[in-house]
Protein: Major facilitator superfamily (MFS) profile domain-containing protein
Organism: Aureobasidium subglaciale
Amino acid sequence: MLGSRLSSVLRWAKLFIICCIFSIDIANLGMVNIALPSIREDLDFDEGSLQWILTADSLTYGSFLMVGGRAGDLFSLYHIILVGLTIFNVSTLACALVSDCIGLVVARAFQGLGASLTVPCAQASISILFPEPHTRVKAYAIWGATGSTGFV
């Protein structure tokens, strides 16, 4: 009895971690919009450069989602999530440290790449963690809500 209860708690704890990853990945898509005026003023970027800061992340994110899912199928979901998180975190640090337009656009593109590796593998992990249909529906509802909350 205690073993199954602990197993259930661990599954929901893993879902919490997966949802945190998803929320941060989705928040990254929208949070730069708030910083654009400061970026333009502090780094003296023109309008075209500001547009590329937004586009680079979304473009690589959308382009590599299928690659991230397939990589999770071929290798391990867990390992691809870790690779994606590493790419995302290193590129986020690079975004904070660069002071030129090209460097920021490239770092933003790598943020999108990292997110595109984590999201499909994290979503597939939910199906594995929750094989029962009624708990899977609850888990995906929580997943969807955290993504929406992250973007807001």
